[in-house]
Amino acid sequence: MIKKLSLIVVLAMLALTTAFVVAADEKPWLDFTNCDFCKPWMSTGLMNDMTHEMVATKTGVMTVMTCPAKRMDEFKKTSAMMNEIGAKAGKGEPVHMCGSCEAMGGLFMRGAAMEEVWLKEGMVMLMTSSDPALVADMHKWAKKNNEEYAKMPAPKADTK
């Protein structure tokens, strides 16, 4: 619970540190090459073996990510890297973010709550709020993410 709360606090701090965020005038929505949060997923090759889907719920968004069971340790380590990057940003160090990660930080800044549920072969993340306007923005964010993920090549067969 404390780890989850820490992540929420760190992501909220990301939104507050916009003066320290290195951003291009027109950044891509997803950027697995330059976004410090997204890059670890691609650099490990893990993204090629995962599926990712966001579903609108009554109170927010449910994100379902799956990966082969034999890569779950790597999945958890990559998730932990995101927390480290968030801590770096919280200290005011420059962090490159894509449009999606910047928007996610903004959702947390506005009060979205997050819960992660780890599975044998993946993770479910619930992002929720009782604020209808925030829930509507979460739905827009999830829709945009799903549209962008659909443009990416399908996951490859498990290679590790």
Helix and strand arrangement:
Blueprint: H1 2-16, E1 21-22, H2 39-43, E2 51-57, E3 60-66, H3 72-90, E4 95-96, H4 99-109, E5 113-119, E6 122-128, H5 132-150
Helix pairs in contact: 1-3, 1-4, 4-5
Fraction of residues in helix: 40-55%
Task: Please state the structural category.
Answer: alpha+beta
Tally of helical runs: 5
- Poorly predicted ranges: 5-25
State the total count of DSSP E strands: 6
The total tally of domains equals: 1
Order of helices and strands: HEHEEHEHEEH
User: How large is the share of residues in beta strands?
Assistant: 15-25%
Strand order of the largest sheet: 2-3-6-5
For the termini, the CA-CA separation is: 31 Å
Average pLDDT metric: 82
Alpha carbon gyration radius: 15 Å
What does this structure look like?
The chain is α+β, with helices and mostly antiparallel strands and 160 residues long. The chain has one domain. It has 5 helices and 6 strands, in the order H-E-H-E-E-H-E-H-E-E-H. The protein has a 4-stranded antiparallel beta sheet. The chain has a two-stranded parallel ribbon with strand order 1-4. The radius of gyration is 15 Å and the shape is globular. About 13% of the residues have low confidence.
